[in-house]
Amino acid sequence: MKQRRTLIRKEGQSNIAFRGIQKKKTKYLKDLYITLLDLKWRWATLILFLGFFLSYFIFSIVYYLLSYIHGDFDHIGDPKFEPCIKNLESYWDALLFSIETQSTIGYGTIYPHAECGGTVPAVFVQISVGFLLETILLGFIFVKIARPKHRRHTLVFSRNACLCKEDNQMSLQVRVGDMRNTHLIETHVYGVLVKRYVSQEKHVYPLFQHELEFEAHGMGDRVFLIWPMVLRHKITPDSVLYTLTPEDLLYDKFELIIFLEGTIESTGEMVQARTSYTSKEILWGHRFARVEEYDEKNDKWCMDFVKFNNVVPSKTPRCSAKQFDESPKTDEGAEKEREKASLLQGASKVLTVSEDTLLDYSTASETEAERDSE
């Protein structure tokens, strides 16, 4: 299957690469906090463990050198000698003591001697550095986990978009749903159509953005996303899709990007969910099947997500919205003429029936009068 050549992937991630940026790494380091948040999880985990390990390792060397310079290793087992760090007899003991000090575990088997110069300052510096590392490393890991962008994974868009006639007007439709019971508030939706554009000066924009306004039922661009909803873009003369025909979906190169933005109810943070549709992912003459069902047993409305991507055929003219808006005038007049003719024909039938009934009645009356006279 041919890979989708799109700007935005179906799941919402960007499909754009940048190159030729001078001093890119320097610019990223100046914005270190956001750089750490944007790192992939494998690199974030590596930085977390590597940061703590380097701290443990550096201070273990400091403690080992303090003991070595003080001569502790030459007086191992001497009860009269006071070492800088009690029971530190090898480098591995120094590493264990470093981990215990920074993590404030304090098993008690290895402990420093306060009268040994350099021991107290080294412990103080390590604990201070340890608090700083925990704040930075654990802090950015927590923020990375709690970022509101992950809320978009429970917001789902339909696999395809549909183009059909609704309310006697051509419209483009997309379905969106929320899996959670805690819903977004102040939710808005809008779309962008990206396609090639040539200006009057013959300047070519291969990726030109056109605005597409979507509405959710009668709420405008505000989406009350308690149940799956069908978003509609009315194809009016102001729409960039006004001249779109079914044949254009096969040959035209454009991409439809849908953005859904709202506030997470439980945290108050903003979140954006997005997806994209290529021209070949728009189904002409179809609309979305119903997913709303009332469960009489549990006395609740049930939204069947199994049918979320299901579509059904819809009677839609195989022409552009412009052609559709221009053609109904003659068709409507002809339809009215047919209605008038039908009414006149019906009236004539009624009149004929009435005349026949009167004729039969008069004939019957004359016959009955003759019988009475006899």
TrEMBL record:
The keyword Transferase does not apply. It is a multi-pass membrane protein. It is found in: Membrane. Its main location: membrane. The chain crosses the membrane at residues 43-66, 123-143. Residues 323-341 have a biased composition (Basic and acidic residues). The keyword Metal-binding does not apply. Residues 317-343 are annotated as: Disordered. Pfam families: IRK, IRK_C. Residues 8-148 form the Potassium channel inwardly rectifying transmembrane domain. Residues 155-327 form the Inward rectifier potassium channel C-terminal domain. GO terms for biological process: monoatomic ion transmembrane transport. Keywords: Ion channel, Ion transport, Membrane, Potassium, Potassium transport, Transmembrane, Transmembrane helix, Transport, Voltage-gated channel. It comes from the Eukaryota. SUPFAM superfamilies: E set domains, Voltage-gated potassium channels. Belongs to the inward rectifier-type potassium channel (TC 1.A.2.1) family. PANTHER family: INWARD RECTIFIER POTASSIUM CHANNEL (PTHR11767), INWARDLY RECTIFYING POTASSIUM CHANNEL 1, ISOFORM F (PTHR11767:SF102). This is ATP-sensitive inward rectifier potassium channel 12. It comes from Aplysia californica.
